[in-house]
Amino acid sequence: xxxxxxxxxxxxxxxxxxxxxxxxxxxxxxxxxxxxxxxxxxxxxxxxxxxxxxxxxxxxxxxxxxxxxxxxxxxxxxxxxxxxx
Length: 85
What we know:
4 helices, globular, 2 strands
């Protein structure tokens, strides 16, 4: 996690506006968003769950990552989905 090494009071991501965090998320993969921003604070958990532009590419993904993504993302927040067998 981005702030895993920092004391909670030193992590300033929780001070950024939702809109700015969502703009940052536009440049990250879904896996990176979930692994980098979840379980840092309740605020960031809400920001991640409220992001509504997830682009999921399941073409080459390991089962563990697939399961984690499916558990964390509301299907209504997905704008693009790529599947493979």
